[in-house]
Write a structure and sequence with these properties.
alpha+beta; two-stranded antiparallel ribbon; about 35% strand; elongated
């Protein structure tokens, strides 16, 4: 090997040796503070009671209607809907 190749290899090895491993850089102390994202312990919620209303559904009627516009007469769809108890 040439002297230049040896010097380059030594330089690369020294750079990798001086950098601490990734796992060591992120170590935490054994006594860690509680996470702020965990919700505090709370009592269980009360029972939920649901009172259903009578069922409703929509009834619709549709038709086509002639509308007179400045550009000419147009056949235009119309729809009328209302709520019906089921």
């Amino acid at each position: 090997m040439s002297a230049k190749a040896v010097a380059t290899t030594c330089l690369i090895i020294s750079l990798f040796a001086s950098v601490p491993p990734h796992a060591q850089a992120q170590q935490t102390s054994p006594i860690a503070e509680p996470s702020l994202t965990t919700p505090p312990a709370s009592r269980s919620a009360g029972r939920i009671v649901i009172h259903p209303r009578p069922l409703l559904y929509r009834r619709c009627v549709d038709w086509y209607e002639l509308q007179h516009r400045p550009s000419g007469t147009v056949l235009y769809p119309q729809m009328r809907c209302w709520w019906v108890r089921g």
